């Protein structure tokens, strides 16, 4: 592997942390690291970094390992658009850099192309080490980026008023209406008899 670091983190250490956090060694998280590094370098230093991921796959975990932005602190938002793209931005200025996997960038990198486009047989993946070497050699050749401006922050700056649902007595954000979303019929589970 030619590249020694991603976002200032030793690649070997990142791969270990990736496996512990993500559950396995992920080429998508390596590409995500290259994307994050490109975006944050172009954005420049900011104490108010936010990240928007446009996929639920791999990128959010790369963001959480390589930046201070997480689901828990609200500085990372995830849109389930299925695009391997992200935007890093300053939440005060709303200036940012959008970075995406460029399909033309896959030319010349057959392992990455086959892996990403899923052209191989089901569950047939090249060894991680081979894919990782190709990702690290390709680096920024795989991606494109452009400066952007957000019309508004995707994170509420003010505390969200909460209350207790009059139907189920559970807490919920009052902006959802007179009752929680579950009691409004947007529930993802069915209650079973008995309790644990």
Percent range for β-strand residues? 15-25%
* Major sheet: 5 strands, mixed
Oligomeric state as shown: single chain
Average pLDDT figure:
91
Which strand order does the major sheet show?
4-3-5-6-7
Could you tell me the number of beta strands?
9
Low-confidence sequence ranges = none
CA distance, first residue to last residue: 51 Å
Percentage of residues in helical conformation: 25-40%
Structural class: alpha+beta
Tally of alpha and pi helices: 5
Order of helices and strands: EEHHEHEEEHHEEE
Describe what this molecule looks like in 3D:
- With 196 residues, this protein is an alpha+beta fold.
- The longest helix has 17 residues.
- The chain is built from 5 helices and 9 strands, in the order ββααβαβββααβββ.
- It starts with a strand and ends in a 23-residue tail after the last strand.
- Strand 5 and strand 6 form a beta hairpin.
- The strands form 3 sheets. It has a 5-stranded mixed β-sheet, with helices on one face. Strands 1-2 form a two-stranded antiparallel ribbon. The protein has a two-stranded antiparallel ribbon with strand order 8-9.
- Helix 2 packs across helix 3 and helix 2 packs parallel to helix 5.
Provide a compact summary of the structure.
This protein is α+β, with helices and mostly antiparallel strands. It is built from five helices and nine strands, in the order ββααβαβββααβββ.
């Amino acid at each position: 592997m030619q590249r020694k670091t991603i976002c200032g983190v030793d690649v070997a250490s990142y791969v270990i942390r990736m496996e512990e956090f993500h559950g396995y060694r992920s080429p998508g998280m390596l590409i995500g690291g290259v994307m994050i590094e490109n975006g944050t370098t172009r954005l420049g230093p900011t104490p108010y970094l936010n990240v928007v991921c446009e996929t639920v796959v791999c990128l959010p975990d790369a963001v959480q390992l390589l930046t201070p932005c997480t689901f828990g602190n609200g500085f990372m938002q995830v849109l389930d658009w299925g695009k391997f793209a992200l935007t890093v931005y300053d939440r005060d200025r709303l200036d940012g850099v959008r970075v995406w996997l460029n399909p033309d960038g896959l030319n010349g990198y057959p392992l990455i192309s086959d892996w990403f486009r899923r052209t191989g047989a089901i569950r047939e993946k090249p060894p991680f080490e081979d894919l990782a070497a190709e990702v690290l050699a390709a680096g920024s050749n795989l991606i494109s980026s452009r400066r952007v401006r957000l019309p508004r922050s995707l994170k509420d700056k003010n505390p969200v008023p909460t209350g207790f649902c009059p139907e189920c007595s559970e807490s919920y954000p009052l902006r959802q209406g007179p009752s929680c979303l579950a009691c409004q019929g947007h529930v993802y589970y069915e209650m079973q008899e008995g309790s644990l």
